Amino acid sequence: MLPLVIAPDPILRKVTEQVSLPLSAEVQALAKQMFPAMKHYDGIGLAAPQVGRSLQLMVVNTPLEPTAYVNPVILKRSWKKVAMEEGCLSIPGVFGIVKRPQKILARYVTLGGQTREEWLDGLMARVYQHEVDHLNGVLFIDKTKEITQGSELLAKYTQNEKIKM
Ligand SMILES: [Zn+2]
Questions:
Q1: Does residue 5 contact residue 50 with C-beta atoms inside 8 Å?
Q2: Ligand 1 centroid vs 80 CA: distance in angstroms?
Q3: 106-152 pLDDT, tens per residue?
């Protein structure tokens, strides 16, 4: 099982590198290891830095099947934002309310090497945005204005980090 990286590990704060195309067998293999890891750690999404790889790769447990997103970006965001409680496998025990656009236009490359554009809504838009944040070194605790659980743990997860405003 791929080990899970826990904050304040500095890899979680690095901007990840683009995956070069066509996809290497190594990246394919990493993605395929991330599916069982996401299930094992009981997450709805998992980004490569959370398993120690600074790459633009993430997996999401969509309603249809677990899906990998390579070099994912957000092209458009709805004006309408929704607030929802989030947590993160790399910040165990902490939850907080985060406001995010309700809908986004996502562009990514599939494991099959195809570029796709797709509007995501609701929970899938939420998870996609949370994971893309990971690829940019951003954690949900940077965005929350209301910690609902585990505020006493925050200092442990952010020690030695510069305060981001
Ligand atoms: Zn996370």
A1: yes
A2: 22
A3: 999 999 999 999 999 999 999 999 999 999 999 999 999 999 999 99
Q: How confident is the model at residue 161 (pLDDT cuts 50, 70, 90)?
A: confident
Instruction: State in Å: Cα 26 to ligand 1 middle.
Output: 23
- Residue 42 is classified by DSSP as T
Which CATH number, 3.90.1150.10, 3.40.50.360, 1.10.1130.10, 3.90.45.10, labels domain 10-158? 3.90.45.10
Neighbours of ion ligand 1 (CB under 5 A): 88
Annotated catalytic residue 65: no
Answer whether 75's CB lies under 8 Å from 87's CB.
no
Q: Which of 86, 131, 146, 152 is catalytic?
A: 131
* Separation of CA 126 and ligand 1 centre (Å): 11
Instruction: Quote the CA–CA distance of 57 and 111 in Å, as a whole number.
Output: 10
Q: Which of 99, 103, 108, 96 minimizes the C-alpha distance to 125?
A: 103
CA 123 to each of CA 61, 89, 100: distance values in angstroms, whole numbers, following the listed order: 11, 17, 11
Instruction: Tell me the CA–centroid distance for residue 43 and ligand 1, in Å.
Output: 9
